Amino acid sequence: MKRICVLAALTLLLAGFGFPSSRTSALLRYDRQIDALLGRMTLEEKVNMLHAKHMFVSAGVERLGIADLKYADGPFGVREEMEPDSWTPLGWDNDTATFFPTGSALAATWSPELAYAYGAALAREARLRGKDMILAPAINIQRIPTGGRTFEYLSEDPFLSARLAVAYTRGAQENGVAVCLKHFALNNQENNRGTVDVIVGDRALREIYLAPFRAAVEEADAWGVMAAYNKVRGSWCAENDLLLNQILRDEWGFAGLVVSDWGGTHSTVASIQSGLNVEMPGKQFFGKALLDAVARGEVSQELVDRRVREVLRVRLAVKPVPGHEANRVVTSQPAQQRIAYDVAARSIVLLKNDGVLPLRLKNRPLIAVVGANATQAMAAGGLGAGVKTLYEVTPLEGLRNRVGTGARIVHARGYEPVEYAGFGGFRKKAPAELEKEARAKELRAEALALEAIEAASGADIVLFVGGNNRAVETEGSDRRDIFLPSGQDRLIARIAEVNPNIVTVLTSGGPNDLGVVNRVSKALVLSWFNGSEGGNALADVLLGTISPSGRLPFTLPVKLEDSPAYALGTYPLGGPGTDVFASLVARAEAAPTAQEPSRPARDPNRAHYSEESLVGYRWFDTRKMPVMYPFGHGLTYASFEYAGLATDRRSYEAGDIIRVTLELKNRGKMTADEVVQLYVHRVDPSVEWPEKELKAFARTTLRAGGSGKVRMEVPVSSLRYWNENTRSWDDDPCMIELRVGPSAGDIRLKKSVVLR
Ligand code: BGC
Q1: 357: CA distance to ligand 1 center in Å?
Q2: Distance (Å, whole) CA 689 – CA 755
């Protein structure tokens, strides 16, 4: 009991639930020192700090002992070293890093402690490589299930995203590296991300899309922010006065530096005036053009000083790693690998279990592992940042590692995985060539399927390991649909005819259509792009060494068309044009070809977020629509009983904290973690609200038969709404119902209290 309270208290402390640490950034303490430095710098030296020196470096001033600022991708591992001015890898042997589970996996842990450890681990590896700022965490809201970077982002829910972003930021910055929150803001789709203009109402902007960024700035004092590629309400994010000046700096008190996404700067005067500090990775706008603008009187010296000051604050806060100390050892180190394991082990979501899991190894069963994802590496692939990892344990290797001689394992690939073919489609080919290729592909697919069906038919258990891969989920383009690629649905349906004893594991970073696999599988597991230790963690869950404890950070819809932006047609379809990043790295091979299906005539460059705040489960709940698996869902090998929901009072005023307790009992036969979730429903509000919203959660460990008290806190201030008339946060005094359970779709306890 005591242990549980301590754990919950720690969760609250680390997550800083709703208590901004301080509105004054620690960065301000360098201002006196900066005054002196600015006085000694020439205009050229100042401007030199405001653009790229190299692809991932912006300049310091050697003469004054100001070191260059070194940036590194990315959210799930420190990117390999590249030539200073190109994307060509240097091919070092010691820049192999730990591949951490990607964003959606981290979010599935619902654990601020693990997010802190993750940020800390990434920072330690970044320091080993001499880096000052990691281009992470990536915290855009997962608005569409098809989003190309859903795997990098955390959640469809702003509260879960915010709690994790705060902890990640603290973990990284307390270990000597600045974060760079990305992509600010509303970069919720990859198709046309370099041209799309997002039109969003103020409430959704504030309550949903900006919330994780705000929390990481106000509560964790994030030192860096990356301006996204897209436009918001008509102006580019890198020159967006509303986002950068009015909200980020003036309202939230951000004191650090804003860097443009790579190639995302579009102007000189508007950008520097609106709050951009560093143009990356070139100097088209903030090099000579900026000096000229100063000479012409279009940009004042004071403004240049202000932008340099913001860069210097970060430079002084992060101690440079001396050149001779960097890169002395291999980047990936055991302590960090352990954290990659811990996160992976707690991220795996058991969606369904008809009693076949954990696997029983009595009598050395024959396990047919079917599926190319069983051996698929996920650290790299597709466009954008990947990790050159020291190692990656695939699902098949993990199983072999853990099973030893306890079972006989055979593997059949079953299907050809999708391969990344370059951005924007494929080389134009003649119809005859295409037809020949398609025929050969069909033959290969049938041969692979037959081999898998044969392996499955003689096995005791079929472990189908499918899902997406990094070619399917990639930066620069969204998925066209969420079906399992490579004909996996057809294959598993055929396998089910010869052997119904199927356990399916999906290694995907984003949602899939589960219609077929859910029907034919006795158990269904979501195991993400789960990092260097992913395969070991998966095997530990499958074998019951640990109980699964991951929870969905997004809703799994019955079908894509049910999800809000698709149902309302507010996701602007249209084949990807020339991607801003892809053209930067000159990988755009061709414009969309004749193979592109024709798209409805909708302006692909305007995204009206007219579903407003009804993102993810807020939509399905409010519209009372069925889902395949709800937000927050995840089973364990135990079963938990909820009782005794209580609050410290019956009514609360602005500024109060609602203190909630409940009794939790583990009625199962093994130690397991439960993630208790608290949603708030407004009973008689004066403004419109979604049906319910996540406002607190607590991951707690209980041994078999154990019970304990779970404590959660909901500051009344976290229940405010953005008043579009007064343009400020407002209370909505009304009766609210606290709804507590193991997922958004399974509310076990309710209690009403009044907000006065
Ligand atoms: C991505 C960023 C990344 C940057 C540098 C851009 O294309 O959007 O997330 O940090 O490239 O690699």
Answers
A1: 40
A2: 15
307 and 383 in a single domain? The answer is no
Whether 331 maps to a domain, the answer reads: no
Residues 506 and 418 reside in one and the same domain: yes
Domain stops at, among 521, 555, 589: 555
Q: How far apart are CA 557 and CA 631, in angstroms?
A: 10
135 shares its domain with 230: yes
CATH number at residue 147: 3.20.20.300
- Whether 306 and 360 map to the same domain: the answer is no
Residue 254 C-alpha to ligand 1 middle, in angstroms?
22
Nearest-atom number in ligand 1 for the CA of 581 is 7
- The predicted-structure confidence for 171-188, as pLDDT tens digits, reads as follows 999 999 999 999 999 999
Q: Examine the domain organization and report whether 724 and 686 are in the same domain.
A: yes
288's tokens: 């000579």
Q: Does the pLDDT at position 3 exceed 90?
A: no
Give 3-state DSSP helix, strand, coil % of the chain, rounded to 5: 30, 20, 45
Atom of ligand 1 nearest to the CA of 229: 8
User: Of the residues 540, 555, 570, which one is the last residue of a structural domain?
Assistant: 555
Domain assignment of residue 730, given as a range:
638-755
Q: How far is the CA of 384 from the centre of ligand 1 (A)?
A: 6
- Three-state SS sequence of 125-137: HHHHCCCCEECCC
> How far, in Å, is the centroid of ligand 1 from the Cα of 714?
35
Q: Is 479 helix (H, G, I), strand (E, B) or coil?
A: coil
Q: What is the pTM of this model?
A: 0.94
Question: Percent of the chain beyond pLDDT 90?
Answer: 90
Eight-state DSSP code of residue 704: T
What integer best gives the mean pLDDT of the chain? 93
Buried b (16+ CB within 10 A) or exposed e, 2-26: eebeebbeebbebbbbbbbeeeebe
Regarding whether 189 and 66 lie in a shared domain, the answer is yes
pLDDT at position 74 is 82
Mapped onto helix, strand or coil, the DSSP state of residue 708 is: strand
Ligand 1: does its nearest atom lie under 6 Å from the Cβ of 56?
A: no
CATH code for the domain of 676: 2.60.40.10
The pLDDT value given to residue 507: 98
Residue bearing the CA closest to ligand 1, atom 4:
262
- Which CATH number belongs to the domain containing residue 470 in this structure? 3.40.50.1700
pLDDT of residue 244: 98
- Per residue in 221-258, pLDDT (tens digit) is 999 999 999 999 999 999 999 999 999 999 999 999 99
Per the listing, tokens 């640990």 go with: 546
Cα pseudo-dihedral 75, 539, 348, 355, rounded to 10: 170
Q: Would you say the CB of residue 581 lies under 6 angstroms from ligand 1?
A: yes
In a domain, 380, yes or no: yes
CA nearest neighbour of 470 among 578, 391, 379: 379
Q: If you measure from the C-alpha of residue 168 to the centroid of ligand 1, how many angstroms do you get, rounded to a whole number?
A: 19
Structurally, the chain folds into a number of domains equal to: 3
Average pLDDT of 365-376?
Answer: 98
Alpha carbons 710 and 262: distance in angstroms, whole number: 45
Whether residues 253 and 133 fall in one domain: yes
- Which of 58, 79, 133, 135 maximizes ligand 1 atoms within 8 Å of its Cβ, making it the mutation to test the pocket? 135
**Residue 466 located in a structural domain:** yes
Residue 152 lies in a domain: yes
368 half-sphere exposure, CB direction, 13 A CA radius? 24
392 touches ligand 1 (CB under 6 Å): no
Which atom of ligand 1 is nearest the CA belonging to 182?
A: 9
Question: What pLDDT, in 10s, does the model give residues 322-339?
Answer: 999 999 999 999 999 999
Looking at residue 585, its pLDDT comes to: 60
74 and 194 fall within a common domain: yes
Q: Please give the number of the atom of ligand 1 that sits closest to the Cα of 383.
A: 7
Q: By the 8 A CB rule, do 276 and 240 touch? A: no
- The rounded distance, in Å, linking the Cα atoms of 534 and 528 is 8
